[in-house]
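Exercise 7. Predict the structure of DUF3892 domain-containing protein from Mesorhizobium helmanticense.
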Amino acid sequence: MADVQVSCINKQDRNSSHEGITHLGNPAGGWKWTRAQVIASIENKSNTFFTLVQGNRGNIGVVDGPNGKYVRTYADGKWNDNLLSLPECQ
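Solution. The predicted structure, encoded as tokens:
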């Protein structure tokens, strides 16, 4: 299992919430996956994912929302918005 840093995201609409994230990636690592691929990887325990924002690590987990599963960061004992602060993937 790899511990993989996410450094960028793509969203359907830049103003949308976590449910609007379509892709996650890391250009330095040479990868960009769909949200569904990341969710499947987390759920089958083949990888863990995290963000590093201003030196603070946020582990990425899967959340069951009203419109299906999506990803969100968890740090300091609570769900937070670290993913939404990441730049757009190219």
